[in-house]
Write a structure and sequence with these properties.
By secondary structure, the protein is of the alpha/beta class. Helix content is about 60%, strand content about 15%.
């Protein structure tokens, strides 16, 4: 019987001791092949290294930016050391198609289960994270239904929401659009007020949900 090929995992964390310790633990598993890298390096090495999965330290690494870049390379991202209370990060990662979430207190077996699931093209997360995502989907669906088909946003504000959805910071948005950071902050402030949400991630989710609702109604 031919054994399945090893899952090629790239570990991304700026803490060397943490990164190397996790690499050794995973390397002891016959189903895993490990390449450990720092965050800055992995952004340049994704295409050349061709891992199956990037395992990103969500506490330190800008997981949303990494997920966006990995998606362009066809690489799945699993966020580890996730804090359930950090809803903004969890939601941002989910919108970008992260293939799994591993909480801070997860066991090695739970991590391996998530990697196996992700390698098969599926998504795995704990019941706590699943409840968080389902609760937010229900809230956003209700808000979109009440808000009608059209978003009350200017073209510039729509551009900013699209860049927020890609995980860009205010400074990065300012550089991309050629405007001041203070101007971006003002736009974000008015976007949150117009969409009646409290967080940047919620604004992007409302915009995406309303756009999809409009497309469905036109078909």
């Amino acid at each position: 019987m031919v054994s399945a090929p090893a899952i090629r995992v790239m570990i991304v964390s700026d803490v060397r001791l943490y990164r190397e310790g996790l690499a050794r633990a995973l390397a002891a598993q016959p189903e895993v092949e490990v390449a450990a890298n720092m965050a800055e390096e992995v952004l340049l090495q994704l295409r050349s290294s061709q891992p199956d999965i990037v395992l990103a330290d969500s506490v330190i690494v800008r997981t949303t930016e990494l997920a966006a870049r990995a998606a362009d390379s066809g690489v799945r991202v699993v966020a580890f050391a996730v804090a359930e209370e950090d809803e903004e990060e969890v939601l941002a990662c989910a919108r970008l198609g992260v293939a799994g979430f591993v909480e801070r207190n997860a066991t090695m077996e739970e991590l391996l289960t998530t990697l196996r699931t992700a390698s098969q093209g599926e998504v795995h997360c704990s019941p706590k994270i699943a409840r968080l995502l389902l609760r937010r989907v229900a809230a956003l669906t209700a808000r979109c239904s009440q808000g009608g088909e059209n978003l009350p946003l200017t073209r510039r504000q729509q551009d900013i929401v699209a860049l927020i959805e890609r995980g860009l910071s205010n400074k990065e948005i300012a550089n991309r659009l050629g405007i001041e950071v203070a101007t971006v902050k003002n736009h974000v402030h008015y976007v949150l007020r117009k969409l009646r949400v409290n967080r940047r991630g919620e604004a992007a989710a409302v915009a995406r949900g309303t756009s999809r609702l409009r497309i469905l109604r036109q078909t």
